[in-house]
Design a protein that fits this description.
alpha+beta; 3 helices; 25% strand
Length: 329
């Protein structure tokens, strides 16, 4: 049993080390700190950022609070089917990035106004070339922005390399504003043991920890603890039962009969004699004879149910065996 606990503990430790999941934030400008991958924007001149805003203030999105954006950076584009101000009328605008993980989340800033800027949203998301979701919301027509909005979340994709594409607008569709803040993906950290001595830049802010991943970790830990408790209780019960029955067990072996004794066949009749005689037949005066006697000296057939009639004890003659008066008192 101790070996079983040792193996189970080793397996649990190995699993926990191998299955350490961390979230990595891909910034819209600085990219992936773990792999160095950057977001690719197309067409490039249709996207504006902090750098273009500094170079040309007219490209800045009005009233955007950069203090509430991840790393203080953003990339934004406006799709329009008819307006050629961005140089690409009726052309969907895309942002794409590659990552290796098992979950992905997209965070944007969403404008609440309808004018300056037009805050309607029309986004489509592709994973490995397959559409996997969309986000289409009309602006309510009030001032301000909503920050850190998860416009897309997929916590359960197959682990491995993937390519994510964010498309702003669609042909002949309505106007759409996209302000990309960051992309977060979940990966298996193979350097979990080395992270204690060498801090990495792949740490994401607390706001980017998805609740689904945290819930999975909590459930796994709880299941392991419950399984350990069940094993401990079962082991203690088995040991206690062995101790109780050990005091009741007989020492040595017990034989019902000597092994040297051989059975002797029993004859059906005594030697030299025939069948045993039948018991004597009751006489007429034996009034105490039971009602259910089945036969009587050939007077009544064997199949009759009541061979004797009820007899009054006052008229019955008592039959005593011979020599009864000489029996000792």
């Amino acid at each position: 049993m101790r070996r079983l606990f040792f193996l189970f503990g080793f397996w649990t430790f190995w699993f926990s080390v191998q299955a350490v999941l961390i979230n990595t934030t891909i910034d819209d400008t600085t990219g992936d700190p773990f792999t160095g991958a950057h977001v690719t924007y197309s067409p490039p001149d249709a996207w504006h950022s902090l750098d273009t805003c500094i170079a040309n203030a007219s490209t800045c999105t009005p009233n955007l609070n950069v203090q509430r954006l991840s790393s203080g950076t953003w990339h934004e584009s406006t799709f329009s089917a008819n307006d050629a101000s961005n140089g690409h009328p009726n052309v969907p605008l895309t942002a794409s990035v590659s990552f290796n993980g098992s979950a992905v989340y997209i965070f944007c800033a969403i404008s609440q106004s309808r004018t300056d800027p037009d805050g309607d949203s029309d986004m489509t998301f592709y994973l490995d070339g397959v559409p996997v979701g969309s986000f289409a919301e009309p602006a309510p027509g009030i001032a301000g922005f909503d920050y850190n909005v998860p416009v897309f979340a997929n916590p359960a994709i197959s682990p491995g390399p993937h390519t994510l594409i964010i498309q702003n607008g669609h042909q002949n569709g309505g106007t759409s504003l996209l302000i990309l803040d960051s992309i977060v993906y979940t990966r298996n950290d193979d350097t979990a043991l080395a992270s204690d001595t060498a801090p990495t830049a792949a740490t994401s802010s607390p706001r980017h920890v998805p609740g689904a991943t945290l819930a999975v970790i909590i459930v796994l830990v709880f299941a392991i603890l419950v399984l350990l408790a069940v094993l401990v209780v079962t082991y203690r019960c088995i040991r206690r039962r062995r101790v109780v029955y050990a005091h009741r067990a007989y020492k040595g072996s017990v034989h019902a009969f000597p092994t040297s004794l051989k059975p002797t066949p029993t004859p059906r009749f005594a030697s030299g004699s025939g069948p045993a005689p039948l018991p004597p037949i009751y006489t007429a005066g034996n009034w105490w004879v039971g009602r259910d006697q089945k036969s009587r000296d050939g007077m009544i057939g064997i199949g009759s149910h009541r061979p004797y009639m009820d007899l009054d004890p006052a008229h019955a003659s008592v039959q005593r065996p011979q020599g009864w008066e000489h029996s000792p008192r």
